[in-house]
Amino acid sequence: MEDVVRAFLRPALEMRSSPEGRVFFRLQARVHIEPDDLAYSLRRQVYDESTKAYVEEFDRMLPHLGTRTIYWRIVQFIGTYLYLMSDAHRLGELSGDLCDPDDDEQFLAQAVAFALGGLTAPPVSANIRRAPSERPLLAKGKTPGTRGQAGWRRQRMRSASSGTGGWPATPIRSPR
C-alpha cells in the first residue's frame, strides 16, 4: 500500500525540483478549481486513466471499503496532494519555519503517512447521525421556521431568492 502511494507522489515530487515543474503545479492546482467545460475536459483527458488505475489498485488492496469509498478517498488524497504541490509554502509560514516544505524526504514521508491514514481508515456509515450537541444552531434571532430537516429545507427555499444563496442564518456550534 505504501509503495502505491509513493508511486503516486514520487514523480510529482521530482518535478517540483525545477522552476518549470513548480509553475506546472501552480497551473495544475488552478485547473482543478476551474469550473468550466474546458477544465473538466482537460482533467478527464489527462488524469482519468491514471486515477482510475489507482482506484482499481486501492480497491484491490482494500476490498472491505468498496469502490465508492475508494473514489471519495482518492479525490480527497488528490486535493491534499494538489495543495501540497502548489508551492504555496503555507506550511513554512504556518509553522513559523519549523517545517521546511522544500525538504523532499520529509515532505514525502509526511504525505505518505497522511494518505495511508486516510485511505486505510475504517469505513464510515452512509447514515451518519450527529449527536444533538454537535448539530448546528442558528445564530441569535434567526429561525428555520420549524424543527427538523423539513424546516431547514423550507427556510432554504425561502432564502434562495433573498441573495443568501439559499442558506439560512449562519450556523454556530453549541458550547460544550
Protein topology:
Elements (H helix, E strand, L loop, with lengths): L1 H14 L3 H15 L3 H25 L5 H19 L4 H5 L9 H16 L17 E2 L9 H12 L11 E2 L4
Antiparallel strand pairs: 1-2
Oligomeric grouping of the chains: single chain
- Separation of the first and last Cα atoms: 39 Å
For the record, the count of structural domains works out to 2
| Tally of alpha and pi helices | 7
Q: What is the CATH topology assignment of the largest domain? A: Tetracycline Repressor, domain 2
Biggest sheet strand order reads 1-2
CATH architecture grouping of the largest domain: Orthogonal Bundle
Strand and helix order: HHHHHHEHE
Low-confidence stretches: 145-176
Mean pLDDT over all positions: 77
Radius of gyration over alpha carbons? 21 Å
Question: Structural class from helices and strands?
Answer: mainly alpha
Instruction: Give the overall form.
Output: globular
The level 1 CATH classification of the largest domain is Mainly Alpha
The major pleated sheet works out as:
2 strands, antiparallel
Word description of this protein:
This protein is mainly alpha-helical and 176 residues long. The chain folds into two domains: 2-119, Tetracycline Repressor, domain 2, CATH 1.10.357.10; 132-172, no CATH class. It has helices at residues 2-15, 19-33, 37-61, 67-85, 90-94, 104-119, 148-159; strands at 137-138, 171-172. A two-stranded antiparallel ribbon has the order 1-2. Helix 3 packs across helix 4 (67-85) and helix 4 (67-85) packs antiparallel against helix 6. The protein is globular. The two termini are 39 Å apart.
